[in-house]
Specification:
The complex is a heterodimer of chains A (240) and B (765). By secondary structure, chain A is of the alpha/beta class. Chain A has nine helices and ten strands. The radius of gyration of chain A is 18 Å and the shape is globular. The relative contact order of chain A is 0.18. By secondary structure, chain B is mostly helical. In chain B, a hairpin with a 2-residue loop joins strand 4 and strand 5 (535-536). Chain B has helices spanning 2-24, 29-34, 36-51, 56-79, 87-118, 125-142, 147-169, 179-200, 227-249, 251-261, 263-268, 273-295, 302-318, 324-344, 358-369, 392-410, 415-432, 434-440, 448-461, 471-491, 495-513, 540-562, 565-575, 577-582, 587-613, 625-639, 643-662, 671-681, 690-698, 706-720, 735-745, 756-760; strands spanning 217-220, 223-226, 525-526, 531-532, 535-536, 615-616. Chain B contains 32 helices and six strands. At the A-B interface, helix 1, helix 2, strand 6, helix 3 and helix 5 of A face helix 23, helix 24, helix 31 and helix 32 of B.
Chain lengths: 240, 765
């Protein structure tokens, strides 16, 4: 059984169908990519999966259990973690405190476990040197890593990443790719929304292409690269 | 089975509520059961409806309807004055209610227009109307100008000028500021206008506002309809038509509505936000003035006119702060309820002031019916100064220093000044209850003094009459569940509604709860000062030292709390509710818990308030809703996120009291109202509050604060670096820089959900 199942989900904002009967799975130990042009509905899907947006129709299942009507914090405790495309850090806290808020929910506020796990996550994403800086003062790329460390500190089973490489330079992006691969190797299911095509092709085992709220193609990166529908979606049907 | 259970629970809850009302009305159980059949007529179908619904939102709404219906049935049945429903009495009801509805609607529409266009909820709407009504009185009565000059002059010229001026000087700078700042500035304005009018027009001289066109009128079914009432009603209707036309058929109006939906897109389409917000404020202020002038003949008193706003709040919330037709409907419901209770109900001594609480009760019901809001995302252009969180060691040093200084100072204080200082320390104790709630979690409670009042009542009832050492703890325990009840209806909504709920609760407590003989006898009850393990704190100086010590301990407690997991969680909640939820924080529960903690801390402070006064009675002026607001404002001015901010609030209060007493000048009499109101405007430029600034300036001077010196040096170095324009090319872009660019480009707004709407404005790459 897939770890996370998105089953015929639609989201309607007034007259606009942002997500249209979309289904796909996220498997344990694999990085699944979700790509598509701006406004294809990727972030909306993330919000549906994490419970910030109620779908108009369709179900979301974790381990086969229907979580469609569950509150966001309950889903987080069941193992769904995410980062945001537009930063949602706790800006007035330090990087370490950001991660602590998450690890204290996971390990309890008392005893050393939460602090130890927070330090471990900061080190794992490579920002332990700025642990005591206030996050508002950090560059955007670093703040993104704070979000990632915070998400990891909830000990998730599924990790949803919304454009993790934006704001990172080339070396950092490469390090991010290695990190994601190692996370997947630990058994985590990763769902990745990304615009950096090279990054996506290099890290994902499986890709879903979303356009106007619909999945227009799915498969391995090689398969997707040769798909004409995808080229149309990205480059426009009329011109190229 | 499940449905049968739900049915049984819903039905018995409704009947229990009805029996409760019977009990409050002084009936015995037999009489109560005899009266139940009529309630059951409504309760049974509602329970069936409840039991057959699946959607939790629908079920909650059904429960709210059912409660409201039982409440109305119960109150009407018990309090019926025995007056017959005749053509005359019903006509009278309508003739009185419709113009009143018109006034509420005018005021509420002003509120809605400003809120939808600028995102600012104007707590000062009533006070501005009051102030302009006084200006009108000055021109019309004192200067004897004819109505046809005075009225247009105030409503069409002075009011819009005031509105545009406020927009220019104050409101425009509130865009994108934290909610606490936005709310506190308009609450401060409310107090400022009250103080200003009390300064210009001293309250003790009798004034009356003439009705438009005298007392003439015509008769319908033996009821005189004055021209004033007719004009009021017609004005409200004309205004509705004009607003409708303006918002749907003029360029500016359409843009104003567009701004609400999406501020940045409206900007891209060529609308000029500053013109729109100026227009909205001009309109809103005109409407405030109109409402104030029209209602003033009924009761020309500054406070009464200011509090008309509670009716407007209720009507506007029924309109969900968006819909003008629903706002008008809300105004009508309110006016009917108010006039109905005056005409047909006789409430007796005990419930005599209850009709004054009608707007707040309606407000509560409207809050309960609001749909669940989405979780708040971070504000993109929030700008936070670099702040160091105090260590527990700092707090201990501070508390000890405070104690020592106070010990020395108190030796020189006269008995009067000792009492003032005691008041200051107690104010600090009340204020510190808001630090976790408002300072960290970003939730506003305008009623800390009301919770303190519950603590004071608990103190005099249980143990405080003998000065038992555990009585303050009991007072805290008594106030806590009351906090839960206040927070529950609003905690699932966004911050503004919690502020409104707390304000409504304060006014409800003032009019309905404190006058209950089971809580307080009308004669005053005495509060003995504490005896702790044989040592008595009865005298002035020992009691002052006790209060100082307790405040110091609360400061240490608060600082410790901030450094705990709970404290971090609260700050996280303020910075991003959405992110808090996705790491597993239960946002609703956390809000309720911190509100409860705050209520308990205020209740604890209330025990000391009672001791400071010595007696407590239902009539204490300190327990009114308006009297509690300066405490909140001075705390915010001091620094709402800091324990030291509470100390600042206390000392500010003492200084004001001393200034007013020392310089016996009549125009200063309103200073205790005016000063906190005006000081609140200072938080626009300095949202962190005074203590933050003071700390930044003085911490580097302390020998043990090496870190503060390092930060100062780093900031100096950063200032000295060459920069190009506003963006430093010599350092990496920080989030603030990016926010700045985005703001300059005018493309980012926290209202846009990311997605197609945002993207279409920019060509996809």
């Amino acid at each position: 059984m897939p770890l996370l199942q998105i089953d015929e989900v639609s989201v309607r904002f007034g007259g606009l169908l942002a997500v249209d009967m979309t289904s796909f799975d996220v498997e344990e130990g694999l990085i699944t990519g979700l790509i598509g042009p701006n406004g294809a509905g990727k972030t909306t899907l993330f919000n549906v999966i994490t419970g910030l947006q109620r779908p108009s129709t369709g179900r979301v299942r974790l381990d086969g259990r229907d979580i469609t009507n569950m509150k966001p914090h309950r889903r987080a405790r069941m193992g769904i973690a995410r980062t945001f495309q537009r930063l949602e850090v706790f800006g007035s806290l330090t990087a370490r405190e950001n991660v602590l808020v998450a690890s204290e929910k996971r390990h309890g506020a008392f005893g050393p476990a939460a602090g130890r796990s927070a330090d471990e996550m900061l080190a794992r994403v490579g920002i332990d040197s700025v642990a005591n800086e206030q996050v508002d003062q950090l560059p955007t790329g670093t703040a993104r890593l704070v979000e990632l460390a915070r998400a990891l500190a909830t000990s998730p089973r599924v990790l949803l990443l919304d454009e993790p490489s934006s704001g990172l330079d080339g070396d950092e992006t490469e390090a991010m790719g290695r990190l994601l691969t190692s996370l997947a190797a630990d058994g985590l299911g990763v769902l990745l929304v990304e615009h950096d095509v090279a990054f996506v092709m290099g890290t994902c085992a499986h890709l879903n292409v979303l356009d106007f709220g619909r999945i227009i193609a799915r498969g391995t990166p090689e398969h997707i690269q040769s798909n004409t529908a995808v080229q149309h979606a990205y480059l426009g049907t009329g011109g190229a | 089975m499940n449905r049968a259970q739900n049915f049984a629970i819903a039905l018995s809850a409704q009947l229990a509520l009805r029996l409760g009302i019977e009990w409050l009305a002084g009936h015995n159980l037999g009489e109560g059961i005899g009266d139940l059949w009529f309630s059951a007529l409504f309760a049974i179908p509602l329970s069936v409806w409840y039991a057959t619904q699946e959607n939790p939102d629908t079920r909650r709404n059904i429960l709210v309807y059912a409660t409201t219906i039982q409440l109305v049935i119960g109150v009407v049945d018990e309090a019926w004055a025995g007056r017959d429903l005749t053509v005359e009495s019903v006509t009278r009801l309508i003739v009185f209610a419709l113009p009143l509805a018109g006034i509420y609607a005018i005021s509420a529409s002003g509120l809605v227009v400003v809120y939808t266009t600028t995102g600012i909820f104007n707590f000062a709407q009533g006070a501005m109307g009051m102030f302009l009504a006084f200006v009108y009185w000055e021109l019309r009565v004192n200067r004897d100008l004819p109505t046809w000059i005075a009225l247009p002059l105030v409503v069409l010229i002075l009011a819009p000028m005031l509105g545009v001026g406020l927009d220019r000087l104050i409101m425009r700078h509130l865009q994108g500021r934290p909610l606490v700042v936005q709310l506190m500035v308009t609450v401060g304005l409310m107090l400022g206008f009250l103080g200003l009018s009390a300064t210009i027009w001293p309250q003790n001289t009798g004034r009356s506002m003439p009705e438009l066109f005298g007392t003439d009128g015509f008769e319908i079914a033996d009821v005189t309809v004055t021209w004033h009432r007719l004009t009021t009603l017609v004005t409200a209707l004309v205004l509705a038509v004009v607003l409708r036309y303006l918002l749907f058929h003029t360029r500016t109006g359409v843009a104003m509505r567009a701004v609400v939906d999406n501020r940045s897109l409206a900007g891209l389409n060529g609308a000029r936000p500053e013109v729109l917000s100026g227009t909205a404020w001009a309109l809103g202020t005109s409407m405030a003035a109109l409402a104030g002038i029209l209602i003033a003949p009924e009761n020309f008193a500054a406070e009464v006119l200011t509090l008309i706003i509670l009716n407007a709040f209720a009507a506007a919330i029924i309109g969900r702060l968006r819909s003008l037709p629903l706002t008008y409907l809300g105004a009508l419901i309110l006016a009917l309820a108010v006039v109905f209770s005056r005409t047909f109900l006789s409430l007796g001594q005990r419930w005599g002031q209850a009709p004054l609480a009608i707007p707040t009760i309606v407000l509560f019901i409207a809050l309960l019916l609001l749909p669940q809001a989405g979780l708040r995302f971070a504000r993109i252009n929030a700008k936070r100064p670099r702040e160091r969180v105090s260590t527990v060691r700092d707090a201990v040093i501070g508390a000890v220093a405070l104690f020592v200084v106070m010990f020395v100072v108190s030796d020189f204080l006269s008995a009067t000044n000792t009492n003032r200082m005691i008041t200051g320390m107690v104010t600090g104790l009340i204020a510190i209850s808001l630090v976790p709630l408002t300072g960290w979690a970003g939730q506003v409670n305008l009623a800390p003094v009301t919770f303190a009042a519950f603590g004071a009542i608990a103190y005099v009832k249980w143990g405080g009459d003998e000065g038992m050492w555990w009585a303050p703890l009991l007072a805290a325990a008594f106030a806590a569940p009351i906090g839960v009840l206040t927070a529950l209806p609003a905690a699932r909504l966004q911050g503004l509604y919690l502020a409104l709920a707390s304000m409504a609760f304060a006014s409800m407590a003032q009019y309905v709860i404190f006058s209950q003989p089971t809580l307080l006898s009308t004669s005053s009850s005495s509060a003995q000062r504490l005896d702790v393990f044989g040592y008595s704190f009865h005298e002035g100086r020992p009691f002052l030292m006790l209060c100082t010590g307790v405040l110091g301990m609360m400061m240490i407690f608060v600082v410790t709390l901030r450094r705990s997991a709970f404290g971090r969680r609260l700050v996280a909640l303020r910075d991003s509710e959405a992110a808090s939820a996705t790491v597993g924080v239960n946002v609703f529960l956390t809000k309720v818990i911190v509100f409860t903690l705050s209520a308990a801390m205020a209740g604890f402070a209330g025990a000391f308030f009672a001791q400071a006064r010595g007696t407590i009675s239902a009539q204490d002026a300190e327990f009114t809703m308006l009297a509690g607001i300066p405490v909140v404002l001075t705390l915010v001015v001091g620094g709402v996120a800091f324990a030291a901010g509470a100390l600042f609030a206390g000392i500010f209060t003492v200084l004001l009291a001393i200034i007013v007493a020392t310089y016996d000048i009549s125009w200063l009499a309103a200073l205790t109202t005016l000063a906190p109101g005006l000081a609140a405007l200072g938080i626009i430029s300095n949202p962190g509050g005074a203590v933050g600034e003071i700390g930044r300036a003085f911490a580097p001077l302390l020998p043990w604060r090496k870190d503060a010196r390092e930060i100062q040096a780093a900031e100096k170095a950063a200032d000295a670096e060459p920069e190009v324009g506003e963006l430093g090319i010599t350092r990496p872009f920080t989030r603030e820089d990016i926010m700045y660019v985005e703001k300059q480009l005018g493309v980012v707004d926290d209202l846009i959900p990311n997605g197609r709407g945002a993207t279409l404005a920019f060509a996809p790459d």
